User: Which sequence fits this backbone?
């Protein structure tokens, strides 16, 4: 089930997009913690779920992100 992200997190993502900040993202993928780096190009909604799109084309569901540039956004209990 998708859980909406906080407004503060959304604002942080918007700043990263506008300033083209190289970012490190730790997130849940296939029930495993994954880490990736890149520049967030945009955000989009697909099937009522929000995603960020990296410059590599990788899509990450926003509610599955544990940390973004070192800042915690959800508990890492998997």
Assistant:
């Amino acid at each position: 089930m998708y859980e909406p992200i906080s407004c503060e997190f959304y604002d942080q993502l918007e700043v990263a997009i506008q300033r083209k900040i190289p970012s490190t993202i730790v997130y849940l993928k296939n029930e495993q913690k994954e880490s990736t780096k890149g520049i967030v190009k945009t955000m989009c909604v697909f099937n009522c779920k929000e995603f960020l799109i990296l410059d590599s084309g990788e899509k990450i569901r926003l509610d599955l992100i544990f940390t973004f540039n070192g800042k915690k956004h959800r508990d890492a209990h998997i």
Notes: The chain has one domain: 7-72. The domain at 7-72 is CATH 2.30.30.100 (SH3 type barrels.). The two ends are 15 Å apart (CA to CA).
